[in-house]
Every structure is written in structure tokens, then in C-alpha cells.
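Reopening closed ticket. The problem is back. First fold of the pair:
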Amino acid sequence: MRVKVACVGGGPAGLYLSILLKGQSPSHDITVYERDPEGSTYGWGVTYWRELLDKLHAHDPESARAVEESSVRWHQGVAHVRDLATRRPGDAGHGIGRHRLLEILTARARSLGVRLEFAHEITPERLPDADLVVAGDGVRSALRTAHAGHFGTELTAGRNTYTWLGTTKVFDSFTFAFVESAHGWIWCYGYPFGPGHSTCVIECAPETWTGLGLDRVSESEGAALLEKLFAHVLDGHPLIGRASGDGGAQWLTFRTLTNRTWHRGNLVLLGDAAHTTHYSIGAGTTLALEDSMALAAALREHTGLPQALARYERERRAALLSVQSAARYSAQWYENLTRYIDLPPERMFALLGQRHSPLLPYVPPQLYYRIDRAAAQSQALRRLKRWLGPKVARSVHARVLSGRE
């Protein structure tokens, strides 16, 4: 059956969905609408892990090969705390420039016959004539916002402020650097995404941000200050920002977005339009691409649109539960950094790797470290730790809600 689909938003989710639908049936009429000109995307590198690459190879080997060839890899992490540093082996991570990723997906979609309409903005008042309209237009989705009451959209702001920068320093591993300033701690996450560049995300508590004056200086002045603070990991390389027009720096507060439902009639949400997870777990692009895989599969296996959209939403909601929990605890770990930062660096780094644990916030850090080390040697203790964490977290959460704490 020939289906006409309009994907609103030319990010990874919309482009990859168009590729999968055309691969399933060349007769499908697929158009991707992107409001910005081709090649004008903003962004540095995105991260992903081997599991996603395996899925990409299974769904569309040609684009997967191009993504893999354009990616860089690392196998360890390094944490700098004050003037000390410690390294830990880890799972193989991958980085690719967002611009390059979109180039690959755009070229692949074109080769399959997808119609690409750049510099073409779609508004809620004038939706394309299609069997299915896919809102892949990001966290600020205009299509979702027009029906926010139906979707049950909720945005929850985090506490810390952050800025997303690039640098010509090519890190050899996933790099954390924690710097103690006169106004509190400020830290960065750095990872390579190409032969000449890395991403550098910098985060701090709001009082540190204002204390350092980062809320008042221009982007170039802010970058100069940050370069001094992180000189020991940048090795003289500059930080590169995004020109903002008004001279202000691009500092943000992360907003976690959820929706009660993901579809309305023939309109369905995809990627960041449907959900966001804190950047500290590096899952945004992965989740968006997995949304596309699930939606394409549901459309293939169900001839009725309501049944297909219901299955897509059911499947992805279930898959997101553990990821959203991990993201929530990860963000809280950084918001409570002073609880961990004075541990010996190797212990602090070990607990940084455990920041997704629901048990960690409720156990003294030194004790948790000893439990974690013991659990590595005991399968029974590992099972107890996995069982106890969610139970403790639910109990504390219920007490808070009931006003007993």
C-alpha cells in the first residue's frame, strides 16, 4: 500500500525515518521539510555507542557504513580534578560531527527518492496534505505546541547552567575536567568527533555562573575566561562558540520534556519533539534514531494508522523508562557534585561512572564505593544492589510526596 508521509524537521530522526520508509517500499511518497537552508545546521559532535551502530547496520547498511567511516572512537575516560588526573577503561564510544551525520543521511535519503524541501517552514495552520505528518521539529516543536493540551506536554527545568562549545583540541578519550573557582565548581565534558575538532560542554551551578560573571559578558569574553579555567586540558587550543547576534553567550538550562501521548489523529511526535533526556548520558541522537526505527516497523506491520501509532508509542515509552531514569539520576549527580568531589580522584571517577544508580544518592559515597567494589566480585551482591536501588528510591520519593520528609 502506497503511503504519503510528511516529515517536518530535517534532523537525524526525520531523515532516518524517510530512509527506512523508502527502503521498505519505494512507492511510498515521502517528503522531508526543513525550515533552515541545507547545510546550515548548528552543533558540534554527537556521541553514540556500538549498540546503535549495530542497529544502523541491520536497518540500512549503506548509511551505517558511511556513519562508521566518519566517526572517531575512544575506549577510555579521563577525569581531571584540580591538579590530579585518573583514567579508567570503558565501553567503546563513538563521536561524529552533527553536520557530517546530516550530510550522510541527506545524501542517502536523496538517493532513495525522498523529496527534500529545505528553507521550507511548516506551520500548524497549514499542514502538508499527507496520510501521516511526523513532527520531528525538536524540543520547541511548533506542531506539538499547537496541541500541547492534547499531548499533555510538560517541561521540567534542571538547576545547572551549561553551554555547548567546540574546540580544536582533539581529546584522546572522553574527558572530564573539574575546576574549583573562587565561586564554586565548574566542569567540562569533552570528546572528539573528527580529525580536527572536539565537543566541549561546560556546566556549573547557577551561583557559580553568576559569580564568575558569565551571565554578563559577551560570548568572546566568556570563552576567554573559560579557556583560562580549562587551560590544563585545552593545551592552548581555543573554545569555539556560536555567534549569537546580540553578543550574549549561549548559556542554557536543560529542560526535560515529556508528553502524555505522542499522537493526535495523523500527527505523531518523533525524537526531541516527544521526549528529551539530559545531555550528560549522551543519548539524544540515539533515542531519536531508535524512534525512527520503531515507527517505521510499526507502519510496516500495521495497515491501520491508529494501531501503528499506538504500537509505536507503547514500544518507545517502555524502552525509554530506564534511559529517562538514568538521565534523571545523572543530572542530579552533577547538581550534587560537592557530595563526591573531595573523594580521592579514582573513587570520585568510579562514582561518576555509577551516577545512573538510584541507590547512590541515598548511601554515603565512601560506603557506596566499597559496596560497588564488593559487588564486582559477588553475583549475589550485584543482584541485591540492583534490587535495592529502585526500592529505596521509590520509598524516599513516596515519603517526600506525602510530606513526611
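Second fold of the pair, where the issue appears:
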Amino acid sequence: MHEQDWLSARFAEHRSHLHAVAYRMLGTTAEAEDAVQEAWLRVGRADTSAVENLAGWLTTVVARVCLNLLEARRARREDTAGALPPEPDRPRPALRPVVPEDEALLADSVGVALLVVLDTLTPAERLAFVLHDVFAVSFAEIAAILDRTPAATRQLASRARRRVQGAAAASEAGRSPKREIVEAFLAASRAGDFGALLDLLDPDAVALEIRGAHEVAAFFAGRAQGARVALVQGVPAAVWWHRGGPKAVIEFTVRAGKITALAIDTDRRRLAGLDIVVLPVAAR
């Protein structure tokens, strides 16, 4: 068999696995198909005579293509939220470690929630987690793709794993009356629905230096276009994401079904210390 024909046959043999890698990395079927096709073009131009583990090598090629696409995607992202003023500081709680038996469950059963969380990771964190925890690629191999040390790559995967662990818990922890109120508030804010905002706010509601339901509703009407519901320190809140990180967090105080206070934090150093898990849109 001609070498190119042999290579084509081996690529076809591994194609479903390569597509699975690309899909977990990129989050859409169309982008995964594009990545696999680009990988095939690269494979066709490469010298494979010294390759001993073809499956592992093909996985690496697809991972490099996906990393480039994730970095390009991140560079294109635009900030859709308006600037919001800062507020104060909070500690970060310790999380229990993920045991190996949990990893396949996290990878395969979280579904949409997992993909939402993966989209908030940096490209390097996403690659490290997907390749190691989902596809059992060694940290040494991943380090070569990222041009980092195995120890640094292990840390990237660990940070990503905490997010995914939170997503697994979020399916239960995120279901609460408070989450429904936060979602309703964000929906009304995006739509500029002043009446709906008033219905959600306590008459004496406070946000920053703004006091009174009418004033708070006027401030937030039309301002939540880029906001998403998240668990912040395990509590439903709202978060603005930009270039893989949180730009602003709004925490809600709710009493008797009404929002009495909104605390807004935009300090990057403080936000980096919070445990934030973005939640998928709740089914209606």
C-alpha cells in the first residue's frame, strides 16, 4: 500500500476519536469538523516515518489546531458589558479534590453545563483538562504542546478541574428560588423591562450609592447584555466574562422574594480569588 493511502486509512480509523477531542476542545460540531480537516492537511504534509504512536501523534496534531482556534476565538471576543464600579474583598474556600473515578462522570454526564464551564477557561487550561482528564494524555505530552513544564501543565488542569467539579455540583446547587430571581433580574435588565425590574426589587433596594427601587431599576435597565448566571462562592449571582476571566460580579441579597441589595465588584485581583462557576440557562 502506498504510504499516503496507508496514512489516510489510519487517519480514518482514528477520526471519531479525533473529532471527540476537537469537540470537547471547541464546543461545536462544525468547529470540530474544521479542526479535524485542518489536522488532516497538516498530517498530509508531515513526515511520519519516525512516529511510533500514531494515535497519540494525531491527537497532538488536533490539539495544536484546537489551541490555535481557541486563542484566535479569545482574541476576537468583545466586551459586551458596560463599565461598573468596584466593591470589596472575599476569601476563596478550599474545594475537595476530584478523585479519578469522578473524571469520566464529569466529562460525559455534565453535558451542556460542562461545555459552558469549559468556555470560561483559558485555552491552555481547557487543553490541559480535556486532554488529561478526558482523554488520559500525559502531562509530559501536554506540556510539549503548550511549551510549559509538566508541573505547570498539571496546575492548569487542576484549576480547570475545580471549575468542572463545580459544574457537576451546580446542576443541584444552582436550582434555587434565588437563582430564579437572579435569572429573572438579568432577563428584565437585558430587555430594558423597567416594570419587571420594579416587581423584583424591594422598594428600598440599594445598589452602590443608588437607593430606591425606581433608581436601581433605571440604572440596570438595558445593562446586563453580557451577564450570565453563576455560582459565586456557591451562591447564585451574576458575572460578566471577558477574555476568559470575570470582569464584574453582582451579588444579590434577597429577602421575602424581593431583591434588597446588589453588591458589584470589578476588582480583578479580588475576582481572581473567587470560586465562580457559570451555570447553563435553566430550562423553562
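Update: turned out to be a display glitch only; the data is intact. The chain has a mean pLDDT of 79. The first strand starts at residue 201 and ends at 207. Please close again.
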